[in-house]
Structure formats: C-alpha cells, structure tokens
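FIELD: query
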Amino acid sequence: MYPPHVSNSRPIGEVLACNLVLACKSISKDRLVTDEDVKSVKLEIEIMTRLLGHPNVVDLKDVYEEEGYVHLVTELCEGGELFHQLDSCQVPRMEFWFCQGIDKRNAPY
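FIELD: result
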C-alpha cells in the first residue's frame, strides 16, 4: 500500500540502541475511507521523504504499516502545533516561509 521505504523488517515497538526521543503519528486505516484519503497519506510520506534533512522540516525517521494503522516516526518537535503558532502571530504565512527559506512551491497552501 505504501512506498518501498516503509519498514516491515523490524517489529513495532523494537527498541534500538540510541538515545533519541522520537514522535510517532499513528493513522488509523479506518479513517482512510476514500482513495483521496490514502493518496493524502502517501503524499505526506513522499513530501517528508523528499525534504529529509531540510533545516526547517521535521525529519521522517521511519514508517511502519500494520493491519489497522500506519505509523510515521519523526523527530520530536516540542512547543505545540505549528499551525497554532502561525495563527497566533501577525506575520502572513508566505512571508514567514520566505523568511525561513522555504520555497513557495513547497508550501502547503
């Protein structure tokens, strides 16, 4: 169902020898009702993979698929939702992206 970099080789919950604190976004497959829902998740994975290593984009570490869920493991970003941070400031989104060095072609709007 998902791109070839989706990991099925390690069991979910396996602890690796590292000192990283990571985040996990778990998406229930029950919520992926339409083809558009599935395409949206695939696109999110594709975009995060292409932008891997960009200083202003969270790094996707791995993707796991199991029967009922797709799990996206990323670096942990503390401080709440970016959307709420942008919404609370007075800087227009495009100006914010420009200041952060993010090309408008990569912007989600």
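FIELD: remark
The helical segments are 35-50, 82-88, 93-99.
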